[in-house]
Amino acid sequence: MSHLTILPTVLRDAALLVSALESLQLNPRLDGTVSGFGGEHQPVDVLIHLNDGLCLGWRRQADGSLGLVGDLQRLNRSNHLAGLLSAITRTYAAHLALREAADHLPGVRLEMVG
Hints:
By secondary structure, the chain is an alpha+beta fold. The chain has helices at about 15-25, 70-75, 80-105; strands at about 30-35, 40-50, 55-60, 65-70.
């Protein structure tokens, strides 16, 4: 029996993203702006400030997904960005799986530990 499970990682639910970011202790804020090169500002639906002064945001796209917004030139210098994005995506997928399981198992209390 395989132990591999494929979880969806397209971010669509802003509230679920906020919950995932909070569980990673990233202190998300709703509605903000991400500053880019030359003073350019992009509005976002969800915003986090990273310890190294960088910001990441997510903005609703035409297809309903949440697209990542950030200053690529500055983010490209970050050594931990790939791992952070992976952790955010995995945590979001886990929260989504728990929510969907709870929808199918009314009266059962599910929680993520660890």
